[in-house]
């Protein structure tokens, strides 16, 4: 454990703790160190998949946390769709943004977000790091993709606004992300700093449009991106840029709410600037809250960051006023969630069907000229699995094996990746009809080659694309779900069994 050089009771130290949003290990008991630090000024904690078993368990855990401080911010990264923490072990009950954007019914988006908000609120969670307001301008984007409402800035803007309005109607704060936009990149900021190399006019009309809509809709928070946009700041990524966070977001766009960073343990920051130094630079640039808990989740991390802020103030690298302002914005959001959450508790129970209804509406089914009969006997499901990006993770199940097994008992399945996958799947399938399940086939040559192999050898193959449907439809039946949430798989299974 790091030895503290500060006094737990002074204002500077309390403010340094207040701006942190750490995670912790544990599912049934709040660690003693978290309780102590809440008493010393910590105003936020973050939940991740490791903290989740069931809704009832999460509710009990958050009750323990709020017993320490009733206005504590309890944050989670619950985008729904492919990025789910609350349903990390089962898959989400709601389709993600790309599916909602394809339907293009803002009322539906608002309704889905409101239902998700009610579910989060029922579990004691009051701050959601969502929605993604990124415009998916680069189809090869490895980290956004189906997390975006789409590639049309106006569509993304209207659905971002609807999502903010819907979720916050439950008293749960939203955090539009990843400012100033993470959609036009082929690099994942979990690994390195992406470059958004377009001029200011493009950024204004494309990437910034959804954030303007989110601000107009009243989003209580905006999350920064670890991306370098030279047209805005040639030297610093968004999270560390005063030009982007203070001059642009606060000054030009008039935003007054909380600015929270993306995970500061991501390599784009920690591997380039250093973890503690990156956090200090972010607060100095205009961020108010530091997301740290996706990776490091121990008391030593919290103490190191606390002491780094205090030392930066003492050396003049960070002004005491800036740290105090950041802490005040955290407390203001905590107060809003406390009041709004109490006012929204009469909003009713979550709707168990709205997610599936939305997933069904998002499907696109393309029938080939021949062999397009529905699947009526137990098939072989071949899932062609790319390496999951860190935001999605590899814990959450996806695909069609489980929903097809429920509809057609005896369904068998296998998972494949890499060269020669198509031949391996053919051999394993035998004489069963093949259902090939892919994610972003356009980004993986080995995957598109596997589909060609299957469709050539077995023209009655059904293809289900659960990523961005960028490639031309192929197969006897081609189903685009626009996401791999559990309900997307259920909707696709229904579609291919009834034709």
Task: Describe the model.
The termini are far apart. By secondary structure, the protein is α/β, with parallel strands linked by helices. It has helices at residues 11-18, 32-39, 55-68, 97-103, 106-122, 153-168, 200-207, 209-216, 242-252, 267-273, 275-285, 299-315, 320-344, 354-362, 401-407, 421-429, 445-457, 486-498, and strands at residues 20-21, 44-47, 73-76, 127-128, 175-179, 221-224, 258-260, 290-291, 364-367, 380-384, 412-416, 434-438, 462-465, 477-480. It has a 6-stranded mixed β-sheet with strand order 9-14-13-12-10-11, sandwiched between helices. Strands 2-3-4 form a 3-stranded parallel β-sheet. A 3-stranded parallel β-sheet has the order 5-6-7. Helices cover 42% and strands 11% of the residues.
Question: What is this structure's SSE topology?
Answer:
Blueprint: H1 11-18, E1 20-21, H2 32-39, E2 44-47, H3 55-68, E3 73-76, H4 97-103, H5 106-122, E4 127-128, H6 153-168, E5 175-179, H7 200-207, H8 209-216, E6 221-224, H9 242-252, E7 258-260, H10 267-273, H11 275-285, E8 290-291, H12 299-315, H13 320-344, H14 354-362, E9 364-367, E10 380-384, H15 401-407, E11 412-416, H16 421-429, E12 434-438, H17 445-457, E13 462-465, E14 477-480, H18 486-498
Parallel strand pairs: 1-8, 2-3, 3-4, 5-6, 6-7, 10-11, 10-12, 12-13, 13-14
Antiparallel strand pairs: 9-14
